[in-house]
Task: structure prediction
Amino acid sequence: MSVASRSSDIPIQGEASYAPDEGRFRTKTGWWQPNAALAADFYNARYARNGVDLTLGDALATVRSSAHFLAGPDGVYQSFATNTLARITAVGAYIGRQVTNKCTNYNANPASTAGVTKYGTGSVLSIVDDQAALAAAGLQNIATSGKVYKLDNSAGASEGGVMFSGSAGNVNKHTASVYMRTVGGTACVAINSSIASAFDTYAAYSRVAVTGTPVDTGRGAQIKVAAGGTAYFILNQLEENTFTTPPIATAGAAATRYASDVQAASMGWFNAAGLASGGAALIVPNYASVGHGVSRTLFELSDGTANNLVRAHVDASDKPALVIVAGGVTQIDTALSAAVALGRKPLAFGWGAGGGYVVDRTGNVASFGAITLPGGLSVLRLGSSVAGNYLNAKLEQIHICGTIQQTDGQTWAVTA
Amino acid sequence: MSAINTYLIRAASPEELHAALVAASVGKARAFAWDADRFDDARVRLPYPETSPGATDPETGAATEAPTGMWLCEVVLVNEEDAALVAMQG
Result:
């Protein structure tokens, strides 16, 4: 059987698979792709190697020198310690790049208004208790003191607002965000000051964000409150991104959430399963945002360098793609014609000396012919590559196997 | 409880910071920096300009920071100490 044709490996919907079940990897049937050498289901907190269940720590190792917040299915943020994958059942694992919140106030647990400068005649800035509203928004594990900023512009005859200390430092695109609720009027978030979200009302704490290019390096995050209104706000964030990432708490200085480097804890299974001569992967990312204009890695097998690798990613146009480099020479760089959209996107990739494929659940296919395979593959990264290219999204599942030996329906059913 | 060790490294440019961390990586199981410009962004805060008080916000008049011309990066290690990084801090 060749993997040059995708239909050799993933028969069309409803068609019986003609590929022989070699039984090489199958030890029992379960939640994983039947012959998966390594399977990780972050959504359901289950992991297996060659059909044997194991713990997350036995399957994967995470390096990240900072804590990480991630919201659960109930909307409540949970905190993850250093070197711990940010993963929640019914959500998945968030694997993102390094992000610095450039705001330098006390954005999570303010005890004073240090780092927050009010403007506007008639407005009053204070710190108040808003514990119940914070809990209703799922913020109680970040804003543990229950205190928030309040800008009362109810007596103001014109717009009031606050400037947060901490500037962009460059004129690359930034995103400013804040959790905010309003009473009696409208408010918005801005990057000082012309880049602003629309003035609106927020009955409960909502994350309000705006993305744009600061007009100079000294610009920072800002909140504007229309005359007659009052805004309660917390967790202001200014990040060099075209999208928001999970909150980063600050305490009087900029704070960095380091990248999550997630690698297979060991690689003995890889060669034992014969995957050096080709393989396949079934993977389910879940995108909260697209259109970043950058490559976002799903997984990468490499020799630790960019000279020998198999990398599955969505490219700068958000199209699922497979890149294979052997001996420093790019063998294939092929992408589907259809881009991914928001939400969960089951994808399958196959590669071997005879060729391979990229396929999505709706039947879009890109295939390629014979190539030279990379040698020395000894590192498996999930959600990043040797060059970075972080996923910046949630990963629900990944199954890595020799070949996918099921019908489309059976294959995609694994990802349900 | 993890022990967090933070090493603040200062240099005249991001390239100098990269070179210093490549040198500090020799013999280590996991490098702080490699290739032409790649940092271990799971442990190293990417280079950023050093600032000091002295500027004024053009809209509010509030005091803000201005670049000094030097660059900084931070290496943050969990349950690990590194003598080479200690030496670099001067």
Remarks:
- Chain A has two domains: 6-97+261-414, 100-257.
